[in-house]
Amino acid sequence: MSEADRTRRIEAHLSRRARWRWPEIVFWLALFAIIVLVPSRAALINEILVAGLFALSLDLILGLTGIVSLGQAAFLGVGAYAAAILASLDYADPTLGLAVGALVAAVVGFATAPLLLRGSDLTRLMVTLGVSLMLGELANRNAWLTGGADGLNFTMGKVLDLFPIGFTGQRNAALYSFGVLFVLFALARRLRQSPFGLALAAIRENRLRAGALGIATNWRIIAVYTVSAAYAGAAGALLAQTTQIVSLDLFDFHRSADVLLMLIIGGAGWLYGGIVGAAAFIVLRDVISAATPEYWEFWIGLLLVVLVMVGRERLQDLARRAVSRLAPKLARGGAA
């Protein structure tokens, strides 16, 4: 086989992988339909969408590149405060605040990315956690700008000067978050299927071997970490705009821990895992906390222990077997 034929086959393979399949199309149409048809749950759906975008930002570095982080809350908080400060200065256009939040978080991510180039996974965990703690303390110390422990309250303008996204426009807020999530997900999906994404997969599998093949591993890690920070900053801006309040809680450790749990539940590396995990985590949290307000964290922890010990693949196999056994019985019952 000639080199030209080999190149054409690789391009055709990548093109097939990049196509949207019908389950994906059904997923997004169903999500849009739920927002439109169930406006009473718009606030919960919006929370899931924002959390899904936040989890997607972590999936870009953990799932695609194999870099662990406990500092995603740093970029969430930076993006939220950037959008909130901009709105408090009478620049209340949501799209402008979203762009500024993502840009500021990307700058912070680019500045701190070189810290990840050395050390093991444990080192990266501590470094990213330390960055988040430092930024949180900076926000606390500069109360003249951030509001300190009191946080910031502000009023957002309308999206495209047409749709309010405050407390009186919860469905509009959910649709706004849905649109932002879909666009950024499509970009992340394209990145994953691109040669850059394939290089990230090579780094995830074996960084030394990828470097030996001529891949500039350090620059690619810096690039994907910057993109991940921008995604987390966009999630923070969405969170600030749709709730119209920000506080130092955004920098807390539990934010980074929760998003990591979401990705563990949904599965890392296939991009949809963050959205699925965010939906499962938030719904379970609301349902279990309503039943047992004191012990809901125990049941979430038990679920995670079972998931890790048993394995997601084994649970999926058990579910498929159960469905295959029940399907004939349900078919016979319907015929009767």
Provide structural commentary.
It is a single chain. This protein has two domains: 3-291, Orthogonal Bundle (ABC transporter involved in vitamin B12 uptake, BtuC); 296-336. It is built from 15 helices and two strands. It has helices spanning 3-18, 22-37, 42-62, 72-88, 94-112, 121-141, 143-146, 170-193, 195-205, 207-212, 217-243, 253-266, 272-291, 296-310, 312-335; strands at 152-153, 245-246. A two-stranded antiparallel ribbon has the order 1-2. Helix 2 runs antiparallel to helix 8. The mean pLDDT is 87.
Please outline the helices and strands.
Layout: H1 3-18, H2 22-37, H3 42-62, H4 72-88, H5 94-112, H6 121-141, H7 143-146, E1 152-153, H8 170-193, H9 195-205, H10 207-212, H11 217-243, E2 245-246, H12 253-266, H13 272-291, H14 296-310, H15 312-335
Antiparallel strand pairs: 1-2
Task: Write out key terms for the chains shown.
336 residues, mainly alpha, ABC transporter involved in vitamin B12 uptake, BtuC, two-stranded antiparallel ribbon, 15 helices, 1% strand, globular
Give the structure's gist in a few sentences.
This protein is mostly helical. It has helices at 3-18, 22-37, 42-62, 72-88, 94-112, 121-141, 143-146, 170-193, 195-205, 207-212, 217-243, 253-266, 272-291, 296-310, 312-335, and strands at 152-153, 245-246. α12 (253-266) packs across α13.
Q: How far is it from the N-terminal to the C-terminal residue, by CA? A: 59 Å
What class do helices, strands and sheet pairing give? mainly alpha
User: What helical percentage do the residues reach?
Assistant: over 70%
> What is the number of independent domains?
2
Order of helices and strands: HHHHHHHEHHHHEHHHH
* CATH level-1 class of the largest domain: Mainly Alpha
The CATH topology of the largest domain is given as ABC transporter involved in vitamin B12 uptake, BtuC
